[in-house]
Protein backbone atom coordinates (compact mmCIF):
# COMPACT_ATOMS: atom_id res chain seq x y z
CA UNK A 1 0.00 0.00 0.00
CA UNK A 2 1.21 3.46 -0.89
CA UNK A 3 -0.19 6.58 0.80
CA UNK A 4 1.06 9.87 -0.60
CA UNK A 5 0.62 13.06 1.46
CA UNK A 6 0.94 16.41 -0.30
CA UNK A 7 0.88 19.69 1.61
CA UNK A 8 0.44 17.83 4.90
CA UNK A 9 1.01 19.89 8.08
CA UNK A 10 2.68 18.79 11.29
CA UNK A 11 -0.68 18.98 13.07
CA UNK A 12 -2.24 16.66 10.48
CA UNK A 13 0.68 14.31 10.99
CA UNK A 14 0.04 13.65 14.67
CA UNK A 15 -2.65 10.94 14.18
CA UNK A 16 -0.49 9.25 11.53
CA UNK A 17 2.55 9.39 13.84
CA UNK A 18 0.57 7.81 16.68
CA UNK A 19 -1.04 5.13 14.51
CA UNK A 20 2.19 3.93 12.86
CA UNK A 21 4.41 4.58 15.91
CA UNK A 22 6.68 6.93 13.95
CA UNK A 23 9.62 8.46 15.79
CA UNK A 24 9.21 12.24 16.51
CA UNK A 25 12.56 13.00 14.84
CA UNK A 26 11.27 11.39 11.64
CA UNK A 27 8.17 13.57 11.81
CA UNK A 28 10.32 16.63 12.36
CA UNK A 29 12.49 15.79 9.33
CA UNK A 30 9.39 15.37 7.17
CA UNK A 31 8.31 18.96 7.78
CA UNK A 32 11.69 20.69 7.87
CA UNK A 33 12.37 22.23 4.47
CA UNK A 34 16.17 22.17 4.78
CA UNK A 35 16.47 18.54 5.89
CA UNK A 36 19.51 16.95 4.26
CA UNK A 37 19.11 13.92 2.05
CA UNK A 38 19.64 10.74 4.07
CA UNK A 39 18.77 7.12 4.75
CA UNK A 40 17.96 5.99 8.32
CA UNK A 41 16.76 2.71 9.76
CA UNK A 42 14.46 2.21 12.76
CA UNK A 43 12.94 -0.85 14.45
CA UNK A 44 9.75 -0.98 12.37
CA UNK A 45 10.61 1.10 9.33
CA UNK A 46 13.31 2.85 7.38
CA UNK A 47 13.29 6.50 6.42
CA UNK A 48 14.55 8.17 3.23
CA UNK A 49 14.78 11.86 2.38
CA UNK A 50 15.46 12.62 -1.28
CA UNK A 51 15.60 15.97 -2.97
CA UNK A 52 13.85 16.61 -6.29
CA UNK A 53 14.98 19.53 -8.38
CA UNK A 54 12.96 21.45 -10.95
CA UNK A 55 12.65 24.88 -12.52
CA UNK A 56 10.29 27.37 -10.93
CA UNK A 57 7.49 28.05 -13.38
CA UNK A 58 8.19 30.84 -15.89
CA UNK A 59 11.79 31.24 -14.72
CA UNK A 60 15.25 29.70 -15.05
CA UNK A 61 15.70 29.32 -11.29
CA UNK A 62 16.13 25.82 -9.89
CA UNK A 63 14.05 24.88 -6.86
CA UNK A 64 14.45 21.96 -4.44
CA UNK A 65 11.56 19.96 -3.00
CA UNK A 66 12.09 17.18 -0.48
CA UNK A 67 10.20 13.91 -0.76
CA UNK A 68 10.25 11.88 2.48
CA UNK A 69 9.52 8.14 2.38
CA UNK A 70 8.68 6.04 5.43
CA UNK A 71 8.73 2.35 4.51
CA UNK A 72 7.24 -0.41 6.68
CA UNK A 73 8.53 -3.67 5.10
CA UNK A 74 6.55 -5.95 7.45
CA UNK A 75 3.27 -4.13 6.68
CA UNK A 76 3.99 -3.57 2.96
CA UNK A 77 3.15 0.11 3.48
CA UNK A 78 4.95 3.17 2.13
CA UNK A 79 4.15 6.71 3.30
CA UNK A 80 5.46 9.60 1.23
CA UNK A 81 5.37 13.29 2.11
CA UNK A 82 6.08 16.36 -0.01
CA UNK A 83 5.05 20.01 0.24
CA UNK A 84 4.06 20.54 -3.42
CA UNK A 85 3.41 18.51 -6.57
CA UNK A 86 6.55 16.74 -7.77
CA UNK A 87 7.34 15.03 -11.04
CA UNK A 88 8.70 11.78 -9.59
CA UNK A 89 5.33 10.91 -8.04
CA UNK A 90 3.58 11.42 -11.37
CA UNK A 91 6.22 9.26 -13.05
CA UNK A 92 5.59 6.42 -10.60
CA UNK A 93 1.83 6.62 -11.12
CA UNK A 94 2.49 6.43 -14.85
CA UNK A 95 4.73 3.37 -14.39
CA UNK A 96 2.08 1.61 -12.30
CA UNK A 97 -0.37 1.89 -15.16
CA UNK A 98 1.89 -0.50 -17.12
CA UNK A 99 2.19 -3.08 -14.34
CA UNK A 100 0.44 -6.39 -15.23
CA UNK A 101 -1.68 -6.43 -12.09
CA UNK A 102 -1.97 -2.67 -11.86
CA UNK A 103 -0.56 -2.63 -8.31
CA UNK A 104 2.72 -1.96 -6.52
CA UNK A 105 4.99 -5.05 -6.70
CA UNK A 106 6.66 -4.36 -3.34
CA UNK A 107 7.55 -1.46 -1.02
CA UNK A 108 11.21 -1.54 -2.04
CA UNK A 109 10.17 -1.43 -5.71
CA UNK A 110 8.20 1.76 -4.96
CA UNK A 111 11.26 3.28 -3.29
CA UNK A 112 13.31 2.39 -6.35
CA UNK A 113 10.70 3.91 -8.68
CA UNK A 114 10.56 7.19 -6.73
CA UNK A 115 14.35 7.51 -6.57
CA UNK A 116 14.60 6.63 -10.26
CA UNK A 117 12.13 9.40 -11.07
CA UNK A 118 14.17 11.88 -9.02
CA UNK A 119 17.44 10.86 -10.70
CA UNK A 120 15.88 11.00 -14.18
CA UNK A 121 15.27 14.71 -13.64
CA UNK A 122 18.97 15.16 -12.89
CA UNK A 123 19.83 13.23 -16.05
CA UNK A 124 17.77 15.67 -18.12
CA UNK A 125 19.23 18.74 -16.42
CA UNK A 126 22.81 17.48 -16.75
CA UNK A 127 22.29 16.80 -20.46
CA UNK A 128 20.95 20.33 -20.88
CA UNK A 129 23.97 21.73 -19.05
CA UNK A 130 26.38 19.76 -21.26
CA UNK A 131 24.68 21.14 -24.39
CA UNK A 132 24.81 24.67 -22.94
CA UNK A 133 28.54 24.29 -22.18
CA UNK A 134 29.20 23.09 -25.74
CA UNK A 135 27.18 26.01 -27.13
CA UNK A 136 29.08 28.54 -25.02
CA UNK A 137 32.37 26.96 -26.07
CA UNK A 138 31.51 27.71 -29.68
CA UNK A 139 30.36 31.28 -28.97
CA UNK A 140 33.13 32.52 -26.69
CA UNK A 141 35.43 33.44 -29.59
CA UNK A 142 32.67 34.74 -31.88
CA UNK A 143 30.70 37.25 -29.82
CA UNK A 144 31.86 40.83 -29.41
CA UNK A 145 30.69 44.03 -27.80
CA UNK A 146 27.44 43.95 -25.85
CA UNK A 147 26.94 40.28 -26.74
CA UNK A 148 29.88 39.43 -24.49
CA UNK A 149 27.95 40.66 -21.45
CA UNK A 150 25.17 38.20 -22.18
CA UNK A 151 27.76 35.47 -22.74
CA UNK A 152 29.36 36.16 -19.36
CA UNK A 153 25.95 36.00 -17.67
CA UNK A 154 25.25 32.64 -19.31
CA UNK A 155 28.63 31.29 -18.17
CA UNK A 156 27.97 32.44 -14.61
CA UNK A 157 24.50 30.91 -14.56
CA UNK A 158 25.82 27.62 -15.97
CA UNK A 159 28.50 27.51 -13.25
CA UNK A 160 25.90 28.03 -10.52
CA UNK A 161 23.70 25.35 -12.04
CA UNK A 162 26.60 22.89 -12.19
CA UNK A 163 27.34 23.46 -8.49
CA UNK A 164 23.68 22.87 -7.68
CA UNK A 165 23.57 19.62 -9.63
CA UNK A 166 26.87 18.38 -8.24
CA UNK A 167 25.73 18.66 -4.62
CA UNK A 168 22.45 16.88 -5.40
CA UNK A 169 24.06 14.01 -7.29
CA UNK A 170 26.62 13.38 -4.55
CA UNK A 171 23.91 12.89 -1.92
CA UNK A 172 21.87 10.65 -4.25
CA UNK A 173 24.85 8.36 -4.65
CA UNK A 174 25.25 8.06 -0.88
CA UNK A 175 21.56 7.22 -0.38
CA UNK A 176 21.51 4.57 -3.09
CA UNK A 177 24.75 2.95 -1.88
CA UNK A 178 23.50 2.83 1.71
CA UNK A 179 20.14 1.44 0.64
CA UNK A 180 21.68 -1.31 -1.52
CA UNK A 181 23.97 -2.50 1.29
CA UNK A 182 21.40 -2.23 4.08
CA UNK A 183 19.63 -5.50 3.31
CA UNK A 184 16.29 -3.68 3.15
CA UNK A 185 15.77 -4.34 -0.57
CA UNK A 186 15.35 -7.65 -2.34
CA UNK A 187 17.95 -8.98 -4.76
CA UNK A 188 15.58 -8.36 -7.68
CA UNK A 189 15.07 -4.69 -6.77
CA UNK A 190 18.79 -4.31 -6.00
CA UNK A 191 19.48 -4.89 -9.71
CA UNK A 192 17.21 -1.96 -10.55
CA UNK A 193 18.89 0.11 -7.84
CA UNK A 194 22.23 -0.57 -9.48
CA UNK A 195 20.83 0.81 -12.72
CA UNK A 196 19.92 4.05 -10.91
CA UNK A 197 23.44 4.17 -9.44
CA UNK A 198 24.81 3.83 -12.98
CA UNK A 199 22.68 6.81 -14.04
CA UNK A 200 24.11 8.84 -11.17
CA UNK A 201 27.69 7.87 -12.10
CA UNK A 202 27.07 8.77 -15.74
CA UNK A 203 25.62 12.12 -14.68
CA UNK A 204 28.68 12.77 -12.51
CA UNK A 205 30.99 12.05 -15.44
CA UNK A 206 29.03 14.34 -17.77
CA UNK A 207 28.85 17.01 -15.11
CA UNK A 208 32.61 16.85 -14.56
CA UNK A 209 33.17 17.33 -18.29
CA UNK A 210 30.74 20.26 -18.37
CA UNK A 211 32.43 21.89 -15.35
CA UNK A 212 35.85 21.53 -16.99
CA UNK A 213 34.50 23.11 -20.17
CA UNK A 214 32.95 25.99 -18.22
CA UNK A 215 36.18 26.47 -16.31
CA UNK A 216 38.16 26.74 -19.53
CA UNK A 217 35.57 29.17 -20.92
CA UNK A 218 36.32 31.62 -18.11
CA UNK A 219 40.03 31.51 -18.98
CA UNK A 220 39.37 31.87 -22.71
CA UNK A 221 36.95 34.76 -22.11
CA UNK A 222 39.43 36.61 -19.88
CA UNK A 223 42.23 36.03 -22.39
CA UNK A 224 40.04 37.35 -25.21
CA UNK A 225 39.11 40.46 -23.20
CA UNK A 226 42.81 41.05 -22.41
CA UNK A 227 43.70 40.80 -26.09
CA UNK A 228 40.91 43.21 -27.03
CA UNK A 229 42.03 45.69 -24.37
CA UNK A 230 45.62 45.42 -25.59
CA UNK A 231 44.45 46.05 -29.17
CA UNK A 232 42.46 49.12 -28.14
CA UNK A 233 45.45 50.36 -26.10
CA UNK A 234 47.76 49.95 -29.09
CA UNK A 235 45.33 51.83 -31.33
CA UNK A 236 45.14 54.59 -28.73
CA UNK A 237 48.94 54.75 -28.59
CA UNK A 238 49.09 55.20 -32.36
CA UNK A 239 46.59 58.07 -32.18
CA UNK A 240 48.42 59.68 -29.26
CA UNK A 241 51.74 59.34 -31.09
CA UNK A 242 50.29 61.17 -34.10
CA UNK A 243 48.85 63.90 -31.87
CA UNK A 244 52.20 64.17 -30.08
CA UNK A 245 53.98 64.61 -33.38
CA UNK A 246 51.60 67.39 -34.43
CA UNK A 247 52.02 69.05 -31.03
CA UNK A 248 55.80 68.85 -31.36
CA UNK A 249 55.56 70.68 -34.67
CA UNK A 250 53.28 73.49 -33.51
CA UNK A 251 54.60 73.95 -29.95
CA UNK A 252 57.82 75.81 -30.98
CA UNK A 253 55.85 77.90 -33.45
CA UNK A 254 53.33 78.80 -30.76
CA UNK A 255 56.13 79.68 -28.33
CA UNK A 256 57.94 81.87 -30.83
CA UNK A 257 54.76 83.69 -31.93
CA UNK A 258 53.78 84.20 -28.29
CA UNK A 259 57.15 85.59 -27.24
CA UNK A 260 57.64 87.91 -30.20
CA UNK A 261 54.01 88.95 -30.24
CA UNK A 262 54.08 90.46 -26.75
CA UNK A 263 53.08 94.09 -26.31
CA UNK A 264 56.64 95.13 -25.39
CA UNK A 265 59.75 95.91 -27.35
CA UNK A 266 61.33 92.73 -28.65
CA UNK A 267 64.51 92.11 -30.65
CA UNK A 268 64.08 92.76 -34.34
CA UNK A 269 61.17 95.16 -33.91
CA UNK A 270 61.37 98.14 -36.33
CA UNK A 271 59.92 101.60 -36.01
CA UNK A 272 61.26 102.52 -32.58
CA UNK A 273 63.64 105.42 -32.11
CA UNK A 274 66.65 105.56 -29.88
CA UNK A 275 64.67 107.24 -27.13
CA UNK A 276 62.04 104.57 -27.01
CA UNK A 277 61.85 101.97 -24.23
CA UNK A 278 64.63 99.43 -24.02
CA UNK A 279 64.41 95.62 -23.70
CA UNK A 280 63.85 95.62 -19.92
CA UNK A 281 60.29 94.35 -20.03
CA UNK A 282 61.17 91.67 -22.58
CA UNK A 283 64.11 90.43 -20.50
CA UNK A 284 62.03 90.49 -17.32
CA UNK A 285 59.27 88.42 -18.89
CA UNK A 286 61.74 85.87 -20.25
CA UNK A 287 63.44 85.56 -16.85
CA UNK A 288 60.07 85.12 -15.15
CA UNK A 289 59.05 82.42 -17.66
CA UNK A 290 62.33 80.55 -17.09
CA UNK A 291 61.98 80.77 -13.31
CA UNK A 292 58.38 79.55 -13.48
CA UNK A 293 59.38 76.65 -15.72
CA UNK A 294 62.22 75.60 -13.42
CA UNK A 295 59.97 75.89 -10.36
CA UNK A 296 57.25 73.71 -11.87
CA UNK A 297 59.85 71.14 -13.00
CA UNK A 298 61.33 70.96 -9.50
CA UNK A 299 57.87 70.59 -7.98
CA UNK A 300 57.00 67.74 -10.35
CA UNK A 301 60.36 66.12 -9.62
CA UNK A 302 59.61 66.38 -5.89
CA UNK A 303 56.24 64.73 -6.45
CA UNK A 304 58.02 62.04 -8.49
CA UNK A 305 55.87 62.81 -11.50
CA UNK A 306 58.94 63.33 -13.66
What does this structure look like?
This protein is of the alpha+beta class. 63% of the residues lie in helices and 12% in strands. The chain contains 7 helices and 5 strands. The protein has a 5-stranded mixed sheet with strand order 1-5-4-3-2, with helices on both faces. The chain is rod-shaped. The N and C termini lie far apart (88 Å). 22% of the residues are buried. The model has no long low-confidence stretch (mean pLDDT 84).
Strand order of the largest sheet: 1-5-4-3-2
Radius of gyration: 39 Å
The helix/strand class is alpha+beta
Q: Which shape, going by the Cα principal axes?
A: rod-shaped
Low-confidence stretches: none
What share of residues is helical? 55-70%
Major β-sheet profile = 5 strands, mixed
Mean pLDDT: 84
Distance separating the two termini: 88 Å
The secondary-structure element order is: EHHEEEEHHHHH
| Strand percentage | 5-15%
Separate helix tally? 7
Q: Report the count of strand segments.
A: 5
Amino acid sequence: MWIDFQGFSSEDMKPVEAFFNIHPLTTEDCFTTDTREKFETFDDYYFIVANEIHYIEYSNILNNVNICMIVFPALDIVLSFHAEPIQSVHEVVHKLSFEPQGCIPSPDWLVYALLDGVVDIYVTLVDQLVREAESLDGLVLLLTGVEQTELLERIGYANRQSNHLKSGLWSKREILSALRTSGKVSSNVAVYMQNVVDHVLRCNQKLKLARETLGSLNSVYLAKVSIELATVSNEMNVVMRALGGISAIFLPLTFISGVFGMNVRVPGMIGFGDNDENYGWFIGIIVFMLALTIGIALFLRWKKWL
